[in-house]
Amino acid sequence: MIFFATAASAQQTGKGYSSAVRLIDSGQTQQAMEELRPYLDYKNYGQLALYARYHFARAAYKNNQYQLAQATLQELIDNYKWEKEDDAYFLLAQSYFAQNKAIDGLKQINQIKSPEVQEEASKASYQYLSQNASVSLLVANFPSYQSNKGYSLALKELLLKQSSLTTNEKQILNDLNQRDLAGDGSTEQTWQKVENNTLDIAVVLPFNYQGGSGVKRLKSNNFVFELYQGIELAVKEAKAKGLQINVRTFDTERKDDVVRKVLQDPFFKQANIIIGPIYPEETELVATFADMHQIPFINPLSNISTTLGSSEYAYLFRPSTEIIVDKILAHSKSHLKGNRIALAYSASSRDELMASQFADEARKKGYQVILNQKVTSSNIRGFLESAGMKPGMTAKVDQVVIFSDDPYIASPSLALMESLSTTVPIFVMDSWLYFNFANFEMLDDANINYLGNNMVNFDNPETEEFRAKFYEQYKSYPGPNTYIGYDVTSWVASTINPNKGFDFQKNLNQRGYSTGGLGYGVDFGNSHSNRYVPVLKMEKGKLIEIK
C-alpha cells in the first residue's frame, strides 16, 4: 500500500497531523484516530483534511474497524476530488476483502488507474482470493474482473486443483494459459516447452493399482505390466530402426495426489505425447493438464469417450462405445434381415453404457429391442432361451447382441450355441476369441460375429514375428494387453516423429485408415478414437472379415 505522511499541497499544517500518521505505523491506531479527528474538517484544513480522512480510514482498518474505514473512504471518494483517489479505492477494496465481500472489493480495484497502485491491488487480490474465494464465484465473474492479474492467477491455480472441469472452466483455463500471470505473489513459473528432434513419450500408468510402490514386486498377471511389456518391445524396435525416441515411465499408483506430483516432472515440458492413464479419476486430472500444455494423451484400453470430457487433446486407442454401436447397426442394415433384437449386457460400466446407447439408436433406426437384460453367468442361458435360442425351439429374434468381456458369461453361451443349429446372427466382443474353453471350429455354423476392438490378427506375419520375439525375451507368450501396448506405441511412433512432425491430429487426419501393426487396421481421421471396427466370423477354422 502506498502511504503519504505529508501533504505538500495542504492549505494549512496542523501540529498533530504528522505525529498522528506516525502513530498509525507504530501500531497505536486508536490514539492516531483521536489525534486525526480535528483535521477531518475540510473548511478549516482543505486538502490536508482529505489526507487526514484517508489516514483516519487507514487507522480504522488496522484497528479492525472495517465498516468505519469503509464509510470514511466512500465519503472521501463520493464527495471530494482528491489527487490520491486510487489509494482510497485500494484501501476501500481491502476493507471489503476483510469483511469477505469479494465482489465489492473487486469493483473498487476496477476503478484504479495508476499502474503502480494497480500492481499492489493485483497482489492483494491474489492473496485474498486464492485463500477465500470459490471456483464457482471466480468463474461466474471472470468476464468482469479478468483484467485483474491477481484475480486471474487465483482462478487459474484453483482450476488446476480441480479433479474435473466443466467445458466453460476448460475454456477459461485455456485462456489463462495464454497469459503471463507471473509476479502477483504466487510461486507460478512460466511453462516453457522444450523442443528437440526426438519423439518423447511419457507413459503414465497405474502399475501399482492394487497398492504398493515400485516395480520390483509386480506380478506377471498385472495387466498394466502386461501392457507395458508391449510398449517396451515397440520402443526397442523403433530404436533399432533408427528412430530418435525417448520414453519415461511414471507410476500413478491410482492415487490423485501421486498423479498431480507426476505431472510436475520436468520431462513433461518436452513430452510430445502421453500414453495413459487408464482410470477415469486419473484421466480427468491428466486431461486438464493436457489441455493446458497442449500435449495429446491416449487411454490405451478404454472404450468410454465420456471419461475424456471435452478435452481436444484426449484420445482412445480403441473404438468408442458410440462407434461400436454404429458399426453393429450399420452392419445389420446392410447384411441382415428382420428387426427384432435381443440385447444382453454385463454389469461393467462400459457394457451398461453401450447397451443403453445401442437400445436408443436401434429404436431410432426402426428396430425392436424385444429383450433387454443385464446378465450374469447364472442367467445368460435363460436369456438366450427366452430369445428362442434353445434346441427344438424357433428363434423369437432376428439377431442377438451380447456386450460382455466376462468369460463366465461367454462359457455357458458358447456351450449352448454348440448344441444349436441356428442361423440367427449373434454379435459378441472379440475378447471371446481369447477364451480357451471353446472349440471355435465347431461353432462355424453358429453364426457368431466378433466385433473388433483393436483386435489382433493372428494370421498376420508381423504377429507371428512379435510373438516369437516376445517369447525369446520373456520365455512366455504375450497376453491380450501386451498386443495393445505394442500396437499403440508403434502407431504413435509412425504418426509423429522427426520426419513427419509432431502435430498429432493433423498427421492422423492425413493418414486416415492405415494397416500395419498386429491388428486389422486403425482409422483416426477426424476422430479421437479408432473408427475402424471390423466384423469377423469363423469359417472353416479361420477368421474372415466381413466387408
UniProtKB/TrEMBL annotation:
All copies of domain Leucine-binding protein, residue ranges: 229-494
CDD domains: PBP1_ABC_transporter_LIVBP-like
InterPro entries xref list: Leu-bd (IPR028081), Peripla_BP_I (IPR028082), TPR-like_helical_dom_sf (IPR011990)
The species this protein was found in: Echinicola pacifica
Protein's UniProt name: Leucine-binding protein domain-containing protein
Keywords: Signal
Gene3D superfamilies linked: 3.40.50.2300, Tetratricopeptide repeat domain
Similarity comment: family membership: Belongs to the leucine-binding protein family.
Pfam families for this protein: Peripla_BP_6
